[in-house]
What does this fold into?
Amino acid sequence: MRRIRANAILILTVAWILGTFYYLWQDSRPSSSSSSSSGSQLKNHGRLEERTLPLIVTRAPKLEQQGQLLGQFDQKAFLSSKQLKAGEDPYREHAFNLQESDRLGSERTIRDTRHYRCSSMTFDPDLPPTSIIITFHNEARSTLLRTIKSVLMRSPPHLIQEIILVDDFSSDPEDCRLLSQIPKVHCLRNERREGLIRSRVRGASAASASILTFLDSHCEVNTDWLQPMIQRVKEDHTRVVSPIIDVISLDNFAYLAASADLRGGERSHCFTTQTHLFYLTPVIAGGIFVMDKGWFNRLGQYDTHMDIWGGENFELSFRVWMCGGSLEILPCSRVGHVFRKRHPYDFPEGNALTYIKNTRRAAEVWMDEYKQYYYAARPSAQGKAFGSIADRLALRRKLNCNSFRWYLENVYPELKIPEQDAAYSLLKQGGLCLESHGTDSLGLAECKSTPSIPASQVCDN
Ligand code: LR7
Ligand code: MN
It folds into this structure.
């Protein structure tokens, strides 16, 4: 009798140990370094942790599929005819390590950086297709081709209506011509340098799908990046949605997961709708987003008097919110981007003047009496030319948009005003701030000031 009892206890103990192991294994399966055990219930808490799937990678398509992906396009010839010469500085031309990028070739597997629960999301079977718009000026061939191939490889084919490249008067017209040989890819070449803002408007006008997707020319999209964004825009065409932007190292091209808490402007609201999780954000980084084409046009596309680079993301962000739309970041959508420390291309009017012109236009049209904080943060902008804004003011009246005060009170109540650094924090892109480097250059750098919102407030409603 005693022996039976001892056996029973032994069996129960073993079962309990096995059960505990199984439970722990289940819970930590996708996790490499989970710090909290309570916050993992995405459905209950709406909070994402940095849990990733180290063993599951996004697979490259098999060789036979590649032929179909690229059609007549000869990628070997395309890449090999323009490689770094021995002894050349690999950073000189593109402000990233070209040698490393070329070494990677036209594609690679990358880690699926999403929260593991994202992989069980479901989407409408009848999502509408999108036109992908990529503008580029003297982009490296290997990064540009990886951007295009990642889209073709990691998107459901029926969702890609076309990829529209806009070659912003790059030195070598062959890039544009050759890439057009890839099925679904069209390339429009500007006859003069226009800058990314007018180039995007040109691409958007040529798009035949009802949904527009903008990408920089040195990105790699990750697993199932597109469906969450198209789903949200399909449900409400006034939503403008962005992915979480992962970092591709400019030195070794490692693909690094960004924190799921990183969002434009520090807005701290996170919501779940059954399975679809999103953050509202006051500002988007600006390069990677999905927007309904009709809504893009109705809202006035972009301010086409802005040149080359900069400021258009603030202008678009203010306009979307103030004129009846919303901005979201979707943590289940991930896209990698090569962040650089300097611009590798020239600004015909100079870097600083161009940036001031663009941001002055945004401030003058949209910021009302709060533009004083912009000028306080950037005194050198006073008196600099910014052209006529009559058309944009007329657009604002026609669309009957809300005031900037409304935007601050309703979209960004966390922003402290009128502190001296208020405008400074308005000019932030995620964790990056605008900084001046010397007299004639502006760039994005890690913010020196700490954000005004404590991290603990992030996304725990
Ligand atoms: O004259 C130009 N013509 C162009 O077509 C200058 C640039 N470009 C292209 C360029 O090839 C690239 O594809 O425009 C794109 C953006 O230029 P980058 O990559 O040199 O600059 P960036 O990465 O700093 O760009 C960020 O800020 C810009 C401000 O105008 C735009 O909003 C970009 O879209 C934006 N990029 C992103 O948001 C990507 C994610 C970064 C984050 C967070
Ligand atoms: Mn970029």
Observations:
- The longest strand covers residues 326-338.
- The chain has a mean pLDDT of 82.
- The pocket of LR7 (ligand 1) is lined by residues 135-137, 139, 168, 193, 195-196, 199, 216-217, 245, 285-288, 308-310, 312-313, 337, 343, 345, 429-430, 444 (CB under 6 Å).
